[in-house]
Amino acid sequence: MTEKTSENMRQALADTSLEAARNSVLAKLAQKSERPNAARLLKALALADEAQARRILALARGKLGGLDDGLRDLAQRKAQEDALRLKQEQALAEGRATEAALFGQILQAGRSHAELLTDPDKSPPVLFVCQICGYLIHTEAPENCPVCQAVRERFDKVE
């Protein structure tokens, strides 16, 4: 692939993944608003976008390198705090405390991810993921998330 095509593929993956996440959230809002038809349509759109994102990844798979390269790159990206810290500082400078807090939570959760990625093959058999901020913990779900203070019930168990 040419450099422009490679960049277009990366952008398409980012856009499609974002659209899938957005549609999934909107589906949940529609369900809570007792609009089942809209909820079903939005959920279907989210699944369609996820399928498209998988196709983009499948096409790029041969260009991503092996599993070890991918894990190493992922750990490095999770450990890079400068970009998030800059976003957090920018949000604070603009008086956007909620957004600054979000960037801070992403930063803290990323640290837990990077720690687990140091030796992914020794990952614990059970992980708990905070549905609010993405924090990962491997012992048991805490009473409250140490990052965002979400209650225990907001943790998903991953086996």
UniProtKB/TrEMBL annotation:
Source taxon at top rank: Bacteria
Rubredoxin-like domain: residues covered: 125-158
Alphabetical list of Pfam families matching this protein: RUBY_RBDX
A GO MF label: iron ion binding
PROSITE patterns: RUBREDOXIN_LIKE
Stated name of the protein: Rubredoxin-type Fe(Cys)4 protein
Organism of origin: Desulfocurvibacter africanus subsp. africanus str. Walvis Bay
